[in-house]
Amino acid sequence: MTSYDTHRKTIDELTLMDDYMFAQVMRQTDYLKPLLESALRMKVSKIELIEIQKTEKEGYDSKGVRLDLYVADESGVIYNVEVQTSDKKNLPKRMRYYQSIIDISFLSPGMDYKELRKSFIIFICNYDEYGRGRCIYTFENTCCEETDLKFGDESFKILINTKGNRDEASDDLKELLKYLDDGTVTGDYSRKLDEAVKAVKSNEERRLEYMLLSVWKNEMRAEGRQEGRQEGFAECMEQDAKAMYEEGIAPDVIARIQKVPVEVIEKILGLRPV
Fold first, then answer.
1. Which residues, in sequence order, are bridge partners of residue 70?
2. Which residues contact 193 (CB under 8 A, 6 or more apart)?
3. End-to-end Cα, the chain, rounded Å
């Protein structure tokens, strides 16, 4: 690689509010389910699917998004959980776009709209998007003229502010927010989260993966291929795979970074018959 981002955190500096660490810890239901229940203030059904760093696009040339955490429970409810550590503006419209991407990716041709699942888009932020001091803002579409009339589309958007006023929060939520905000362990759940964070940092495979991701993301920024690039997704993946391979990164590691089967990468690289 030709350049490195000296300001990017090392894995030892990561906290649970960093997207890589968050995804690695929350891929385990024992840690994720209590977080969802604290954030939603309700019980959550048994979790059946967890996908980390899930890439979704509406179309071949449309703007794609990479979801930190995509979750489905046994009752069919979808949860998208993101961590946000800087105010990138337009957060509400980003959440709107995420919702549309999730809906379109689920609804196949021929399916009825009634089959769209109940969904929660949850952003955990270390700043207050609305400046009103709350630790949780929950949004549901309602009628402007009849405020007690719900729109009924079963889509919810939740913003969690780790620095908000916690006076009205449950004890479980207070513990979670405190740990997310400054890493302080105040109970059994935050202790388990802290142990999970330390376990990721001491795992050699995770350390290697994070290093490769960090270097590669830095290289992509240097080349100007950022989130808003207009190239086709498949073309970008092919270019990135070939460039990584030229840098000496093994096909199986490239596949893990690209979130595709290793056979796909081997075909792109000409290591397997098409």
1. 51, 80
2. 16, 25, 31, 179
3. 29
State the residue for tokens 């709350």.
134
pLDDT, tens digit (0-9, with 9 covering 90-100), for 155-176: 999 999 999 999 989 999 999 9
Structure tokens at 261: 């089967």
- Radius of gyration, CA atoms only, the chain: 20
Beta bridge partners of 83: 124
- Find, among 22, 34, 29, the residue nearest to 173 by Cα: 34
Beta-carbon contacts of residue 1 (< 8 Å; ≥ 6 apart) = 215, 218, 219, 247
Closest of 95, 122, 98, 119 to residue 39, by C-alpha: 122
SS3 for 48? strand
> Distance between CA atoms of 266 and 263, rounded to whole angstroms?
5
Cα torsion 235, 238, 240, 242: sign: negative
- Secondary structure element (H or E) that encloses residue 194, with its range: helix 188-202
Task: Classify the phi-psi angles of 176: left when phi > 0, otherwise alpha if psi is within -120 to 50, otherwise beta.
Answer: alpha
Q: Tell me the CA distances in angstroms from 250 to 55, 242, 263, one per residue in order.
A: 22, 11, 13
Q: How confident is the model at residue 80 (pLDDT cuts 50, 70, 90)?
A: very high
Angle (CA) 21-68-249 rounded to 5° is 70
**Residue 140 pLDDT grade (very low, low, confident, very high; cuts 50, 70, 90):** very high
- Residue range 235-255, pLDDT digits in tens: 667 777 887 777 667 888 888
